[in-house]
Write a structure and sequence with these properties.
single chain, about 400 residues, alpha/beta, 6-stranded mixed sheet, about 50% helix, globular
Length: about 400
């Protein structure tokens, strides 16, 4: 599945223009078709939401009634989008534009591209998305079965059967998390080069989507892995530049060791942790060895029982905020960021210091903890969990 706005970021669609339905470009697309004006299909049975329809407007000069009735029928069936190939001088009737806006249908126009090429472009993009969704699920399975080393080894080789014996991992978190569009666009650019070997080191690598993160898995012979570990950031920068991506768009966390591929989960978790701490600390990149106390929070994050209990605790603060329209969560987060400094928290929250003291006391009561240290530990665990993109 793909969204209309994601289709418009594909290379062949860069010159398309939206003439209606601009607010509905998040419509999902699961089928792309070229429309033919055949009387047997005049009612277009089966067309509806999820369809991206390509059609030519050339018959409008010969039989405008047929073309406009066809467009009206498709719009009323609420297909996701209609892309119309026409001459620059031709105009789409205002009536159809209004109807498309009413029915939440995106209308696009284009002039030169071949429809067959467009179909192939969209279908290939959907196919590649299916592949990286499969790989994402495989990584989730590995992380959910930590300790099953043989399963991990086999799964790693399913993701990339060119992998060499040792792995390094990096986690790249987009600095702009407003949308997954950047991640999808990244994979649209990348997929055909996924198993490409770096020309200078001849080492296979693979990018895998994992929630809102990108995981880079690089494989080496042991001696090459140890050498690359020392210059991993320059290696990552080189790979991203090679595929037209900018390292500055990501927080980057890297693992602290090279491991046999059966220990893939270890380096992934290390990289995720480092990337999450990068976001929390406002740093562009970080090595796992630099994560300090956060690494000791991993047992809480990775244990489902503790993780669920943590979420239940944090939800008490959120629920209190919702009920009383208070700012406990923001205050606690700011208090944690400022290393338990009441004066700095007061200044940043624009509140009297006594108000901050009251809010922190209330938060501790809700969480049933006594000390500021306990409150900060729970908050940091939650921040790390959110930073790792956990969707449980």
């Amino acid at each position: 599945m793909i969204q209309v706005n994601e289709i418009m970021h594909l290379s062949l669609f860069k010159n398309f223009s939206i003439i209606a339905g601009e607010n509905y470009v998040s419509n999902n697309v699961n089928a792309t078709v070229i429309l033919e004006y055949e009387s047997s299909r005049i009612h277009y049975k089966g067309y509806g939401p999820g369809y991206f329809v390509l059609l030519s407007y050339f018959m409008a000069s010969v039989n405008p009634e047929l073309v406009h009735d066809t467009l009206k029928t498709l719009i009323q069936k609420q297909v996701s989008a209609i892309a119309i190939k026409k001459m620059p001088s031709e105009e789409i009737p205002e009536e159809l534009i209004r109807l498309a806006n009413e029915k939440h249908v995106v209308l696009l126009i284009f002039y030169e591209e071949f429809m067959e090429d467009l179909i192939i472009c969209v279908n290939e993009s959907m196919k590649t998305r299916s592949q990286y969704i499969i790989n994402e699920e495989k990584l989730h399975n590995v992380l959910n079965r930590i300790g099953d080393l043989e399963f991990a080894r086999k799964t790693a080789l399913e993701i990339n059967n060119h992998f060499k014996p040792y792995l390094l991992a990096a986690c790249l978190t987009p600095k702009d998390l407003e949308s997954n569009l950047a991640v999808h666009t990244f994979f649209d650019k990348l997929m055909y080069r996924q198993f490409r070997k770096n020309l200078s080191s001849d080492q296979p690598y693979t990018f895998v989507k994992l929630d809102s993160n990108l995981i880079l898995l690089s494989s080496f012979e042991k001696e090459d892995a140890e050498r690359t570990l020392k210059k991993q950031m320059s290696y990552i920068r080189m790979l991203l530049l090679d595929i037209g991506m900018d390292l500055e768009n990501f927080f980057v966390g890297v693992c602290s060791e090279a491991v046999e591929i059966k220990h893939i989960s270890r380096v992934i978790v290390q990289a995720q942790t480092a990337a999450s701490v990068c976001r929390l600390e406002g740093k562009d990149h970080m090595h796992y060895t630099e994560t300090g106390i956060y690494k000791f929070m991993l047992p809480v994050i990775l244990n489902p029982l503790y993780r669920n209990e943590l979420k239940e605790q944090i939800n008490k603060i959120s629920q209190y905020d919702d009920k009383h329209e208070s700012m406990l969560m923001k205050t606690v987060m700011t208090f944690t960021k400022n290393d338990r400094d009441y004066a700095s928290t007061s200044k940043e929250c624009f509140q009297h210091i006594n108000t901050i003291r009251y809010r922190i006391k209330k938060a501790k009561e809700l969480l049933n903890v006594e000390s500021d240290d306990e409150l900060v530990f729970i908050t940091k665990c939650n921040m790390l969990l959110e930073g790792m993109g956990n969707k449980d």
